[in-house]
Each structure stands twice: as C-alpha cells, then as structure tokens.
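Incident log, support desk, overnight shift.

02:14 A customer reports that sequence design results differ from what the structure should imply. Their input is reproduced verbatim below. On-call engineer (initials T.W.) acknowledged and began investigating.
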C-alpha cells in the first residue's frame, strides 16, 4: 500500500515546493530515536508563505509555527523554526523545521535548565540529611601535638595529686596534739592546713577540668564531630526536573538503584569565609538541597547524561514520558516482525559487514578524582575498572587485530564510607577513654570515646570543602557496608556495561528494501527491535521512506557468533 504524505501548517493543508523529495527517516544510532523528515527544511509558497508572515507579524520570530506531517494513521508534529536562518524572497520562504516535543528538543531545554531555576518556581523537595565526618590528612601530626599537650597536663595533674597528699600529711601532723599536760594543738597550723587543703582541691579540680576541656578540643581538632549535608536521590531530582519541563519521568534502571544519591558540593551561605568560622562552632549546612552552578550536574540535562553513562543507557520520549533505561531494555518488549528480503535478489543472498565500529580492545570505566578530597585519591577500590578483549585460540599472534578504546567517565566522584578507626583515631580513643574514666570517677558525665566510635559508617571527606559532586548509595542517609556492590565501578560494569563485551555484542550489519506498512512504521516509533520470519532478532539502525513509495530502505544489525573466539579479561 502506498502511503501518501500530507503537510499541514497551523492546521491548514499545504504542499511544499519540495514535497516530492521529502521522506521520513528513523535514525536509531543516538537518543533522538523518533520519526523525522529526511530533509531539514521546507520551501513554502502561496498560502503557507502568508501563514508564516502572519505569524511573524502577530507573535514575532521567536515562536515557531506548528507544522504537521500525516501519513496514513501516522501523525508527526514539527514546527517551523524561524530563528534558524530562514531565507525569504517576495513569494517563498525556505525555513528549517524541527521535531516538536522530541528527545533532541527536550535535551536542548534540559541542558539549559538549572536546578536553581526550578527551585525558584516550584521548591525542590526530597532532600535528606547525609552524615559526614572530616578525616584530615595530617592526623598523625595532630596526634603528636595532642599527646604532648595531654602529657603536660597529666604531669601537672600528677603534681597536684602529690601536693594534695603532702598537704593532707601536714594537716594530720598539725592536728596531732602536742605532748604535755594538758595536750594541746596549734590552732594556726590547723587553719593554715584548711586553707592549703582547699587551695589544693581547687587546683586539682581546675587541672582536671582543663584536661577534659583540652581533650575535647583536641579530639574535635583531630576528629571533628559528625555533621550533615543535603543529599538528593537521583531519580527524585529527575522526576522534578522533567515535570518542570512538562514531562513525566520513568526509569526501571533507577528503580533498581533506589539508593543512588547525588551529594552537591558545599557552599558558603553567608558573607563570611569558611576560614573565618571555627569548625567546632559550625552547625549550619554548607550545601543546597539541589545541585548548584558549582556542581558537575548543575542542569537537568547534565544529570540525565551522567546517569546515562552509569547505566549504559538510552533516552526515549514515548508519549509525554521521558524514559531512561539500559540501552537493551526495549529488545525484549518487541513482538513485531518484518519480511527479511534478501538485498541481492539476483544471487538470493545478503550483503553485510560487521559492526567493528563498536568493537574495543580496552574498556575503562572510572569515576572522577577530586584533588580536594584525598579519599578519592587514596581509595582505588570501587573507583575504576578496566577490561581488555583478548583472543582465545591463536595461530599467528602477529596477525591478531583487536583495536578500539571505550572510556566511560561519569563526572562524579565516589563518596567513601568510614569503615573503621585508623591508627590516629584508635590512639585518640585511648585518651578519650581515660578522660571519660576520670570525669565519671569524679561524679561527672563524659562520653568522648563514644563520639569517636560513632564515626563508623558515615561519609568521610578530608576537608570541609570538596570541589566535585559526589555519588553515594544511601539507605536512611547512610551508605550500607555493601554500597560498592551497587555503585562501585566493577558492579556498574557487571550490571550495565558487560552487555557491550565483544563476544556478546558482535553483529552483522545489513541493508535491505522491505515492503512499507504505515502500521509497522508506527510501531517502530517506540521500539526499533523487530523479528524476521524465522525468529532472528533485528535491530534497525536506520529507516528511510520517500513520499509515495511502496517500500522503505532499512539498515539493521543481527547477532553474530563470529566473536566467540574472544574473551574479556579483567585488568582492574
């Protein structure tokens, strides 16, 4: 059946001067997997020309003119974009047309939509407390200083105890009656003893109090207390970002990574420099409840792109919903079939090539280092993973050709969990335990030791300010002990990127001419995976249809087993 293409501008049917050359193309090599014309401009005259001019007069150049293509039951919405070098004559206009409500249009809007803009319009919700501690890189130096200061105070405490003992001995001597008839005591000595005893007790109390204060201050200096920053679940941000742009958001991949958390960089909210604020007195939050301009995911689009890297994803716009899924998600959702005609009919065979453009020797997936947070430099675990494609059976090693490199680098830094106390903290724990015992023995209440032990399980950073947005996996604000099983580079590779291995991903690429059916074409708009008459899965790469033609040219891939003589070797 021949499908006739009809053109409408502002709801009025027209015929462009270049209508006979206009067809529809589907390109599935990127995210904009939607029907679009095979030309990027139309030449309008007569009534269509008048409609464009009237739109310019009424609403100006910056709002496009609605343009629609109909073909059978298929309807595709475009718009005339007058800001893209429209060429006017006295009787015609050649103007660019763009897909309306398309993925590329959405991403253009998303890439320029800041979270701060969204928050000004509708407050961004869903932020939660993420506890963190500062584990400095000069803890040993501070521990030495602490030990020296504590030793000095301890010596003074020992001397005060000794002086107290001497005073008590003097008091006993002063109160002992003199031998005589009758026995007598020296009232002056007793008064002197009482005064000296009171002074010694006060001195001892002051030294003990000073020692405890010193310990508290030194502990805070070396192991600052647990504080909190604002975190946001990645999906929650994307739901609100897409809603601001008029779309719903869906991602089963993020449903499976429900703890995926974005931790924006700290900011100073007052006119004072952070260096003017004592850390011990700092109690306010230093980051916003959403990514700011200082973050690597400062816009809706940038967050989509970084999550897309992590989950090896594709972005689709189906209806009014933005879908972000691992790129093979739609493979098993298709049930439509096509007649796989042989493209060399005279020889009854297919001509094909292989998708070597997608092959790789090295596959490197890694998060970003943050030079302001030494823990991203110190802890290699979870930060990166590397794979290499190697042949299994070799006859001539010098004839082996496997090439290509894939570098997956999300612009985020892993946030590391405090797993255990380090050397300095264990030594400090001993001092804190001593301080607690002294205070509690004297009737006070001290829990310095517990404040050190409570640091286990929270986020650790090396200083108050870090410069790169962090990626966490949180449950109740904290990262569980197995958080790297979810967001560690190895886990991300195994769960999302292993499907790109050469052995599993080698395909043949075919071109063919197939009978065109508007019904089949309409189904392709949401899923580019079809099956041929013998059940082979075909992934359509390109689809081209020219107006009034009875067939379409397609380019597709089919799974090949010719990569089975390779294996994937783990390097890191």
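02:41 Re-run completed on a clean worker. Output:
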């Amino acid at each position: 059946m021949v499908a006739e293409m009809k053109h409408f501008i502002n709801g009025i049917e027209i015929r462009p001067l270049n209508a006979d050359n206009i067809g529809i193309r589907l390109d599935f090599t990127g995210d904009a997997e939607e029907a679009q014309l095979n030309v990027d401009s139309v030449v309008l005259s007569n009534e269509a020309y008048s409609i464009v001019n009237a739109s310019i007069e009424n609403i100006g150049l910056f709002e496009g003119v609605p343009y629609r293509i109909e073909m059978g039951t298929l309807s595709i919405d475009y718009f005339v974009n007058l800001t893209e070098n429209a060429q006017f004559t006295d009787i015609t206009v050649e103007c660019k047309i763009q897909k309306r409500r398309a993925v590329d249009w959405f991403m253009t809007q998303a890439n320029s939509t800041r979270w701060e803009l969204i928050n000004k319009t509708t407050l961004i919700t869903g932020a939660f407390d993420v506890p963190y501690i500062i584990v400095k890189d000069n803890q040993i130096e501070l521990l030495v200083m602490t030990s020296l200061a504590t030793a000095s105070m301890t010596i003074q405490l020992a001397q005060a105890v000794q002086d107290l003992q001497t005073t008590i001995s003097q008091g006993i001597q002063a109160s002992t009656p003199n031998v005589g008839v009758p026995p007598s005591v020296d009232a002056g000595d007793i008064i002197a003893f009482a005064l000296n005893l009171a002074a010694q007790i006060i001195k001892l109390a002051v030294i003990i109090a000073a020692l405890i204060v010193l310990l508290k201050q030194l502990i805070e200096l070396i192991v600052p207390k647990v504080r909190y920053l604002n975190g946001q679940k990645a999906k929650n941000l994307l739901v609100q970002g897409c809603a601001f742009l008029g779309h719903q958001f869906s991602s089963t991949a993020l449903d499976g990574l429900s703890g995926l958390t974005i931790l924006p960089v700290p900011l100073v909210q007052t006119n004072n420099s952070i260096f003017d604020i004592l850390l011990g007195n700092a109690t306010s939050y230093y980051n916003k409840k959403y990514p700011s301009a200082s973050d690597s995911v400062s816009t809706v689009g940038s967050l989509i792109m970084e999550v897309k890297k992590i989950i090896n994803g594709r972005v689709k716009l189906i209806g009014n919903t933005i879908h972000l899924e691992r790129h093979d998600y739609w493979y098993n959702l298709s049930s439509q079939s096509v007649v796989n005609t042989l493209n060399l009919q005279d020889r009854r065979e297919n001509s094909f090539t292989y998708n070597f453009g997608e092959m790789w020797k090295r596959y490197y997936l890694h998060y970003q280092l943050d030079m302001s947070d030494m823990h991203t430099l110190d802890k290699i675990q979870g930060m990166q993973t590397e794979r290499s494609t190697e042949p299994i059976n070799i006859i001539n090693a010098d004839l082996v050709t496997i090439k290509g490199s894939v570098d997956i680098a999300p612009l985020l830094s892993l946030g590391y969990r405090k797993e255990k106390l380090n050397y300095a903290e264990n030594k400090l724990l001993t001092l804190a335990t001593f301080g607690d015992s002294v205070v509690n023995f004297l009737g006070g209440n001290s829990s310095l030791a517990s404040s050190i032990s409570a640091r286990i399980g929270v986020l650790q950073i090396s200083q108050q300010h870090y410069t790169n947005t962090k990626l966490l996996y949180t449950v109740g604000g904290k990262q569980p002990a197995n958080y790297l099983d979810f967001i560690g580079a190895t886990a991300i590779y195994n769960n999302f990127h292993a499907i790109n291995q050469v052995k599993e991903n080698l395909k043949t690429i075919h071109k063919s001419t197939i009978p065109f059916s508007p019904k089949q074409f309409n189904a392709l708009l949401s899923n580019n995976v079809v099956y041929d008459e013998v059940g082979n899965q075909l992934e359509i790469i390109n689809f081209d249809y020219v107006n009034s033609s009875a067939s379409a040219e397609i380019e597709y891939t089919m799974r090949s087993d010719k990569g089975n003589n390779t294996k994937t070797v783990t390097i890191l």
